[in-house]
Amino acid sequence: MRGKSSEQIMEEQPGARAERGFAPQAVQITQLSRTYRTGGTVVRALDEVSIAFPVGSFTAIMGPSGSGKSTLLQCAAGLDRPDSGQVTIGGTDLTGLDETALTLLRRDHIGFVFQSFNLLPSLSATQNVELPLRLAGVRPDRATVARALAAVGLADRAGHRPAQLSGGQQQRVAIARALVARPAVLFADEPTGALDAATGKELLATLRTLLQDPDAGLDSIVMVTHDPVVAAHADRVVFLADGRLVGELLRPTAAQVAARMTGLEADRC
Ligand SMILES: Nc1ncnc2c1ncn2[C@@H]1O[C@H](COP(=O)(O)OP(=O)(O)OP(=O)(O)O)[C@@H](O)[C@H]1O
């Protein structure tokens, strides 16, 4: 698969994949390992993790600090290279791609949202949403950008700069920017971490709506969070400890998630 061309990737559009029945999973991760070496220290951040995120699923990843949550998200999104294992999105194994093909796949099929909104302060909401398209050399279609902002409830804030928006509105701009290219998968690392509880709840409701909206073209959302209340908004919560998957809960309550986390924290002591 190494050196796969962009044409080959484009043939495997996520939208086509379900129709053709090739890959019922939005993301398939197989025996993923990632080791960090700093000085004489070796940290196995991910240790042969295998997990799939089905089409239509909203998954939360939880675990104690340092358990490998962000590393898993970064490797799954093609932002970091694992030592071994596979990540398959839209029928394409990311780990087999050269840098150019990986950049194209990320651009066309993967959205990423961070805790810090990472908006450019001098640009309007519209210009921030357009930015990834412009950086990719694509002329932004006005209607597409307007639709992306409307989908996150910001049709009437398109001309505002980040300083003129609330935290929740800024994160909505970041989500519109992540979704403007209609990616198959949205990866979110603590998307509500900088928001108050009520604003975070609204944002999670918007993510759920986007996942259910056929026009958004979104197959799956994978979110890292430390907050059991936030995790309980997902369909499934998976738990990591010491770089390994150690369990999952389906449609759990916040109390169930909190209890499982307390158990994992106690195991570390
Ligand atoms: N760039 C890096 N260099 C060295 N070690 C790293 C690096 N990134 C992560 N690690 C180590 O890998 C392990 C997993 O880190 P990771 O950030 O994935 O955990 P996490 O579960 O997201 O943690 P947190 O909840 O604190 O954000 C930790 O022990 C961390 O110190």
Compact overview of the structure:
By secondary structure, the chain is of the alpha/beta class. The protein has helices at residues 6-11, 14-20, 69-76, 99-109, 125-135, 142-151, 167-179, 197-212, 228-231, 254-268, and strands at residues 25-38, 41-54, 58-62, 84-89, 92-93, 110-113, 185-189, 220-224, 236-241, 244-250.
Distance between the amino and carboxyl termini: 43 Å
Number of strands: 10
| Helix content estimate | 25-40%
Q: In percent, how much strand structure appears in the residues?
A: 25-35%
The CATH topology comes to Rossmann fold
Strand ordering within the main sheet: 6-7-8-3-9-10
List the secondary-structure elements in sequence, H or E: HHEEEHEEHEHHHEHEHEEH
Just name the CATH architecture: 3-Layer(aba) Sandwich
**Which stretches of 5+ consecutive residues score pLDDT under 50?**
1-23
Mean pLDDT: 90
The ligands found in this model are: adenosine-5'-triphosphate
Count every helix, treating DSSP H or I runs of 4 or more residues as helices: 10
| CATH C-level label | Alpha Beta
Q: Given the helix and strand composition, which structural class is it?
A: alpha/beta
